[in-house]
Amino acid sequence: MTASRVKPEVLEAARMMLEQMGITTDDLLQVPGVRRQVPTFAEYVPVVLAAIGAGAARTYGNYLRKVVDRWGDRRLDEVTPTEVETLMRQFQADAVQRRNFRGGTGSGEHLIAALRCVYRRAVADRLIADADDPAKKVSKPRRPTSQRIALPDERLGELVAAAATGGRDPELDALIVRFHIETACRRGGLLKVRPMDLDVQQCLVMLREKGNTFRRQPVSPTLMSFLLHHVHQRGAPQDELLLRYLTGGPVGRRRYDGLFVRLGRTLPWVTAQGVSAHWLRHTTLTWVERVYGYGVALAYAGHAESPNDTGTTARYVKATLQEVATALAGLTGEPHPLALSEETED
Predict the structure, then answer these.
(1) How far apart are CA 155 and CA 153, in angstroms?
(2) Across-strand partners of 41?
(3) Are strands 198-199 and 204-209 parallel, antiparallel or unpaired?
(4) Which of 17, 89, 113, 326 is least surrounded, with the fewest CB atoms within 10 Å of its CB?
(5) CA 68 – CA 79 distance, rounded (Å)
């Protein structure tokens, strides 16, 4: 057997170069002119939906199913950037005009995000080259400026009073509204809370929100007592969803739609402005920022660990859980077991 005459350092240099170019030994062994079969959208979209998280699948699933309806028999590498942009414009034009309609921008943005998700997987699976990704070459539509504002105290009081009266289950509606005002959490944060997520002694609730983030959020003793009463009265198992209908069934996202439609019938400005639960988050965080500062508002919102939301400054202004509890105590007028004492604040 003839010994290799290639020096080890030359082999190492070649190996490093191949890694930088994204070429594997399998690629080198393939017969020239023969390439791996690129799947069609109908074949590959179910693979992608099975691989991504439940939240992303819920967001992208409807858009990708429509893509399959149009391009199901086409291979991923047959679609051009111009076709992607044309489809985006069609989605924008066909968007349902709900009360918060903003020109179909959300539909166009979600379509591009969904296609980018598919093509990122295809690149990772070595089905196409990164340079051949058509979705990456199409810009998302520019988002209009948000019309949300912090609700004035008078309007917020009207909303709380309306939630607690009328409707089929005003006790549930009042609990939802108060929880969002106190915690400034997103809709998904409350819907995922389980009885086992309640820390009764320290008045904390574990929130699981978008991006698989977890945080312990202070709540007032009054709200904690309401949550415990709700669990006891409606029989939520410890490891299942806390919010329950009168029938004992778990509450889903549609409850929010029905709640704010009902509130809009009592308070016309709710419908006119398109007020939703996210407005309560906006209202609370605005108040916290004005009274307790930027760093505490970031932590209160669950943004303290997200550099994309706050920039480099965030690493220098992180607030503690005790500071968040202090802000909550100021908001509700109730003492909190984790709040800083006045001497400590001074």
Answers:
(1) 6
(2) none
(3) antiparallel
(4) 17
(5) 12
CATH superfamily of this structure's domain 153-345: Intergrase catalytic core (1.10.443.10)
Residue-level pLDDT at 97: 54
CA distance 64 to 71: 10
Q: For the chain, what is the radius of gyration of the CA atoms?
A: 26
Residue with tokens 């594997």: 24
Q: Cα–chain-centroid distance for residue 29?
A: 43
Token couple for 36: 């791996």
The pLDDT-based confidence of 153 (bands split at 50, 70, 90) is: very high
| DSSP SS3 for 209 | strand
Q: Per CATH, which fold does 41-137 belong to?
A: DNA polymerase; domain 1 (1.10.150)
Q: What is the DSSP string of 232-250?
A: HHHT--TTS-S-B-TTSPB
**Residues 1-20: pLDDT tens digits?**
445 566 777 777 777 777 77
pTM of the shown model: 0.71
Helix (H, G, I), strand (E, B) or coil at 234: helix
Please identify which residue in the block is written with the tokens 């504002």.
Answer: 149
Under a CB-based contact definition with an 8 Å cutoff, are residues 59 and 111 in contact? no
- Token pair of 112, please? 């591009």
pLDDT band at 306 (very low <50, low <70, confident <90, very high): very low
| Domain boundary assignment for the chain | 41-137, 153-345
- Indicate if 153-345 has the same CATH topology as 41-137: no
Mean pLDDT of all residues in 144-172: 90
**Enclosing H/E stretch for 126:** none
